[in-house]
Predict the 3D structure of the following.
Amino acid sequence: MAFLFNSDPVRAAVFRKVFARELPDVELFHSSECVDPEKVRYLLTWTSPDDIARYRTLEVLFSLGAGVDQFKRESLPQQVKLVRMVEDGIIRMMQEYVVLGVLSLHRDMVAYREQQKRQSWLGLAAPQAAERRVGFLGLGMLAQAAIERLLPFRFPLAAWSRSRKEIDGVTCFYGADQLAGFLARTDILVCLLPLTEETRGILDAELFSLLPAGARLLHVGRGPQLD
Protein backbone atom coordinates (compact mmCIF):
# COMPACT_ATOMS: atom_id res chain seq x y z
CA MET A 1 0.00 0.00 0.00
CA ALA A 2 1.52 3.31 -1.11
CA PHE A 3 0.80 7.02 -0.72
CA LEU A 4 1.91 9.14 -3.68
CA PHE A 5 2.90 12.76 -2.99
CA ASN A 6 2.59 14.89 -6.13
CA SER A 7 4.11 18.18 -5.00
CA ASP A 8 7.53 19.68 -4.33
CA PRO A 9 10.17 17.35 -2.83
CA VAL A 10 10.87 19.61 0.15
CA ARG A 11 7.31 19.23 1.39
CA ALA A 12 7.44 15.53 0.56
CA ALA A 13 10.40 15.13 2.91
CA VAL A 14 8.36 16.66 5.74
CA PHE A 15 5.43 14.34 5.02
CA ARG A 16 7.78 11.35 4.84
CA LYS A 17 9.01 11.95 8.39
CA VAL A 18 5.46 12.23 9.70
CA PHE A 19 4.37 9.08 7.88
CA ALA A 20 7.34 7.14 9.24
CA ARG A 21 6.30 8.13 12.75
CA GLU A 22 2.51 7.94 12.51
CA LEU A 23 1.81 5.49 9.65
CA PRO A 24 4.82 3.19 9.38
CA ASP A 25 2.86 0.61 7.36
CA VAL A 26 2.17 3.09 4.54
CA GLU A 27 5.00 3.77 2.09
CA LEU A 28 5.20 7.38 0.91
CA PHE A 29 6.64 8.09 -2.53
CA HIS A 30 7.35 11.39 -4.22
CA SER A 31 6.05 11.68 -7.79
CA SER A 32 9.65 11.78 -9.07
CA GLU A 33 10.34 8.31 -7.65
CA CYS A 34 9.60 4.96 -9.24
CA VAL A 35 6.55 3.30 -7.73
CA ASP A 36 4.40 0.41 -8.84
CA PRO A 37 1.09 2.09 -9.86
CA GLU A 38 -0.79 -0.98 -8.63
CA LYS A 39 0.40 -0.22 -5.08
CA VAL A 40 -0.86 3.38 -5.01
CA ARG A 41 -4.00 3.68 -2.88
CA TYR A 42 -3.74 7.36 -1.97
CA LEU A 43 -2.67 10.43 -3.94
CA LEU A 44 -1.98 13.92 -2.56
CA THR A 45 -1.88 16.58 -5.28
CA TRP A 46 -3.06 20.07 -6.23
CA THR A 47 -4.18 19.08 -9.73
CA SER A 48 -5.08 15.74 -11.22
CA PRO A 49 -2.11 14.09 -13.00
CA ASP A 50 -2.58 13.42 -16.71
CA ASP A 51 -1.80 9.74 -16.13
CA ILE A 52 -4.16 9.22 -13.19
CA ALA A 53 -5.87 6.33 -15.00
CA ARG A 54 -2.75 4.19 -14.53
CA TYR A 55 -3.39 4.08 -10.78
CA ARG A 56 -6.12 1.49 -11.08
CA THR A 57 -6.25 0.73 -7.35
CA LEU A 58 -6.42 4.39 -6.29
CA GLU A 59 -9.02 4.92 -3.56
CA VAL A 60 -8.62 8.48 -2.27
CA LEU A 61 -7.38 11.70 -3.88
CA PHE A 62 -6.40 14.36 -1.34
CA SER A 63 -6.41 17.97 -2.48
CA LEU A 64 -3.29 19.81 -1.36
CA GLY A 65 -5.35 22.67 0.06
CA ALA A 66 -8.86 23.63 1.06
CA GLY A 67 -10.20 23.89 -2.50
CA VAL A 68 -11.30 21.07 -4.79
CA ASP A 69 -12.71 23.14 -7.66
CA GLN A 70 -9.53 22.59 -9.71
CA PHE A 71 -10.51 18.94 -10.19
CA LYS A 72 -12.89 17.81 -12.91
CA ARG A 73 -14.90 15.19 -11.06
CA GLU A 74 -15.97 13.48 -14.27
CA SER A 75 -12.32 12.90 -15.23
CA LEU A 76 -11.53 11.01 -12.02
CA PRO A 77 -11.97 7.23 -11.80
CA GLN A 78 -15.43 6.46 -10.46
CA GLN A 79 -14.21 4.66 -7.34
CA VAL A 80 -11.95 7.53 -6.21
CA LYS A 81 -13.09 9.66 -3.28
CA LEU A 82 -12.09 13.34 -3.39
CA VAL A 83 -11.03 14.85 -0.05
CA ARG A 84 -10.10 18.44 0.71
CA MET A 85 -7.28 19.05 3.18
CA VAL A 86 -8.27 21.56 5.82
CA GLU A 87 -6.16 22.20 8.89
CA ASP A 88 -5.68 25.06 11.32
CA GLY A 89 -2.63 26.45 9.52
CA ILE A 90 -4.49 26.92 6.23
CA ILE A 91 -7.43 28.57 8.00
CA ARG A 92 -5.19 30.93 9.98
CA MET A 93 -3.26 31.96 6.87
CA MET A 94 -6.51 32.79 5.07
CA GLN A 95 -7.76 34.76 8.06
CA GLU A 96 -4.51 36.74 8.19
CA TYR A 97 -4.54 37.43 4.45
CA VAL A 98 -8.15 38.63 4.33
CA VAL A 99 -7.81 40.81 7.43
CA LEU A 100 -4.61 42.32 6.03
CA GLY A 101 -6.26 42.96 2.67
CA VAL A 102 -9.44 44.49 4.09
CA LEU A 103 -7.54 46.76 6.48
CA SER A 104 -5.15 47.82 3.71
CA LEU A 105 -8.06 48.78 1.47
CA HIS A 106 -9.91 50.43 4.35
CA ARG A 107 -6.88 52.56 5.25
CA ASP A 108 -5.92 53.32 1.62
CA MET A 109 -2.49 51.73 1.94
CA VAL A 110 -2.25 51.22 -1.84
CA ALA A 111 -2.76 54.95 -2.44
CA TYR A 112 -0.26 55.87 0.27
CA ARG A 113 2.35 53.52 -1.21
CA GLU A 114 1.90 55.22 -4.57
CA GLN A 115 2.36 58.61 -2.88
CA GLN A 116 5.51 57.32 -1.22
CA LYS A 117 6.94 56.32 -4.61
CA ARG A 118 6.27 59.83 -5.90
CA GLN A 119 7.62 61.36 -2.68
CA SER A 120 4.38 63.26 -2.21
CA TRP A 121 1.92 63.51 0.66
CA LEU A 122 -1.81 64.05 0.46
CA GLY A 123 -4.01 63.26 3.41
CA LEU A 124 -6.95 61.02 2.52
CA ALA A 125 -10.31 60.65 4.24
CA ALA A 126 -10.18 58.11 7.07
CA PRO A 127 -13.67 56.81 7.82
CA GLN A 128 -14.31 54.63 10.84
CA ALA A 129 -14.65 50.89 10.29
CA ALA A 130 -18.35 51.21 11.16
CA GLU A 131 -18.73 53.41 8.07
CA ARG A 132 -17.07 50.96 5.64
CA ARG A 133 -19.32 48.10 4.53
CA VAL A 134 -17.55 44.82 3.80
CA GLY A 135 -19.23 42.12 1.74
CA PHE A 136 -18.16 38.52 1.13
CA LEU A 137 -18.99 36.94 -2.20
CA GLY A 138 -19.13 33.33 -1.09
CA LEU A 139 -19.82 32.03 2.39
CA GLY A 140 -17.93 28.77 2.66
CA MET A 141 -15.74 27.60 5.51
CA LEU A 142 -12.81 29.92 4.73
CA ALA A 143 -15.06 32.95 4.29
CA GLN A 144 -16.73 32.24 7.62
CA ALA A 145 -13.32 31.93 9.27
CA ALA A 146 -12.23 35.29 7.83
CA ILE A 147 -15.49 36.92 8.93
CA GLU A 148 -14.86 35.68 12.47
CA ARG A 149 -11.60 37.66 12.58
CA LEU A 150 -13.16 40.80 11.09
CA LEU A 151 -16.07 40.98 13.54
CA PRO A 152 -14.09 42.76 16.32
CA PHE A 153 -13.29 45.67 13.96
CA ARG A 154 -17.02 46.47 13.73
CA PHE A 155 -17.25 46.70 9.97
CA PRO A 156 -20.86 46.28 8.81
CA LEU A 157 -20.51 42.76 7.40
CA ALA A 158 -22.62 41.06 4.76
CA ALA A 159 -22.24 37.94 2.64
CA TRP A 160 -23.82 36.42 -0.44
CA SER A 161 -24.13 32.71 -1.20
CA ARG A 162 -26.08 30.56 -3.65
CA SER A 163 -28.25 29.05 -0.91
CA ARG A 164 -29.61 30.53 2.29
CA LYS A 165 -27.25 30.73 5.27
CA GLU A 166 -27.39 32.49 8.62
CA ILE A 167 -24.30 33.85 10.40
CA ASP A 168 -24.46 35.85 13.64
CA GLY A 169 -23.42 39.45 13.10
CA VAL A 170 -23.61 39.18 9.30
CA THR A 171 -26.37 40.31 6.94
CA CYS A 172 -26.83 37.32 4.65
CA PHE A 173 -28.04 37.46 1.06
CA TYR A 174 -28.60 34.46 -1.17
CA GLY A 175 -29.63 33.53 -4.68
CA ALA A 176 -29.43 35.43 -7.95
CA ASP A 177 -32.33 37.72 -7.01
CA GLN A 178 -30.46 39.13 -3.99
CA LEU A 179 -27.04 39.60 -5.58
CA ALA A 180 -27.69 43.17 -6.76
CA GLY A 181 -28.90 44.24 -3.31
CA PHE A 182 -25.82 42.72 -1.72
CA LEU A 183 -23.48 44.53 -4.11
CA ALA A 184 -25.27 47.87 -3.66
CA ARG A 185 -24.38 47.92 0.06
CA THR A 186 -20.75 46.76 -0.33
CA ASP A 187 -17.77 49.14 -0.17
CA ILE A 188 -15.11 46.41 0.05
CA LEU A 189 -15.94 43.25 -1.89
CA VAL A 190 -14.11 40.08 -0.83
CA CYS A 191 -14.43 37.26 -3.36
CA LEU A 192 -14.02 33.78 -1.89
CA LEU A 193 -16.10 31.81 -4.37
CA PRO A 194 -15.00 28.44 -5.72
CA LEU A 195 -14.30 28.25 -9.44
CA THR A 196 -17.23 26.69 -11.29
CA GLU A 197 -18.78 27.25 -14.70
CA GLU A 198 -21.25 29.60 -12.99
CA THR A 199 -18.53 31.69 -11.29
CA ARG A 200 -16.07 31.81 -14.20
CA GLY A 201 -15.86 35.47 -15.26
CA ILE A 202 -18.32 36.57 -12.56
CA LEU A 203 -16.14 39.56 -11.63
CA ASP A 204 -16.92 41.59 -14.74
CA ALA A 205 -17.95 45.12 -15.69
CA GLU A 206 -21.63 44.35 -15.15
CA LEU A 207 -21.05 43.18 -11.58
CA PHE A 208 -18.73 46.09 -10.79
CA SER A 209 -21.34 48.55 -12.07
CA LEU A 210 -23.65 47.41 -9.25
CA LEU A 211 -21.15 48.40 -6.55
CA PRO A 212 -21.14 51.89 -5.00
CA ALA A 213 -18.76 54.43 -6.50
CA GLY A 214 -15.27 54.01 -5.07
CA ALA A 215 -15.78 50.39 -4.00
CA ARG A 216 -12.69 48.20 -3.65
CA LEU A 217 -12.06 44.54 -4.51
CA LEU A 218 -10.11 41.93 -2.56
CA HIS A 219 -10.01 38.90 -4.85
CA VAL A 220 -9.10 35.75 -2.91
CA GLY A 221 -10.81 33.34 -5.29
CA ARG A 222 -9.52 32.00 -8.61
CA GLY A 223 -7.97 33.97 -11.46
CA PRO A 224 -10.52 32.94 -14.14
CA GLN A 225 -13.31 34.50 -12.05
CA LEU A 226 -11.93 37.95 -12.93
CA ASP A 227 -12.98 38.95 -16.44
In short: The helical segments are 9-22, 88-106, 109-118, 141-150, 179-184, 205-208. The first strand starts at residue 2 and ends at 6. The two ends are 44 Å apart (CA to CA).
